[in-house]
């Protein structure tokens, strides 16, 4: 009835502080808004779950050594679960 896919959750670590203009640049590079900037001007990982591991952020030589992108080997995310819940919710509301 529905498609499903599984993926390993990404884990992103900033090994060194990325601040100021570099933080702004890093935030702009990521198409999925994984990074954000603290009031102090320091970049941080806001939405690691959004990451598709496209590696765009580490193509830039400036960030290549400062960012580590890995996948958590024992943590899977299943998209089918959400579809099942939505389907179940709709079905029960239609029947009741
Ligand atoms: S790998 Fe791609 S999606 Fe993930 S943080 Fe870097 S630019 Fe964003």
Summarize it.
Helix content is 34%, strand content 28%.
Summarize the structure in words.
This protein is an alpha+beta fold and 96 residues long. The chain is built from 4 helices and 4 strands. It has helices at residues 21-29, 56-59, 61-64, 80-95; strands at residues 6-14, 35-37, 43-45, 67-78. The strands form 2 sheets. It has a two-stranded antiparallel sheet. A hairpin with a 5-residue loop joins β2 (35-37) and β3. The longest helix has 16 residues, at 80-95.
Structural class: alpha+beta
Low-confidence stretches: none
CATH architecture verdict of the domain at 9-73: 2-Layer Sandwich
CATH fold group of the domain at 9-73: Alpha-Beta Plaits
Mean residue pLDDT: 86
Adjacency order of strands in the biggest sheet: 1-4
| CATH top level class name of the domain at 9-73 | Alpha Beta
The ordered H/E elements are EHEEHHEH
The beta-strand count equals: 4
Q: Can you tell me the overall shape?
A: elongated
Give the fraction of residues assigned to helices. 25-40%
**N- to C-terminal distance:** 22 Å
Beta-strand residue fraction? 25-35%
Main sheet specs: 2 strands, antiparallel
């Amino acid at each position: 009835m529905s498609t499903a896919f599984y993926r390993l959750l990404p884990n992103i670590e900033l090994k060194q502080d990325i601040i100021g203009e570099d933080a702004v640049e890093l935030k702009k590079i990521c198409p999925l808004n994984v990074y954000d900037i603290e009031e102090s001007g320091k970049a941080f990982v806001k939405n690691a779950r959004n990451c598709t591991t496209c590696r765009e952020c580490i193509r830039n030589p400036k960030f290549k050594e400062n960012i580590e992108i890995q996948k958590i080997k024992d943590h899977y995310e299943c998209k089918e679960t959400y579809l099942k819940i939505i389907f179940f919710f709709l079905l029960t509301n239609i029947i009741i």
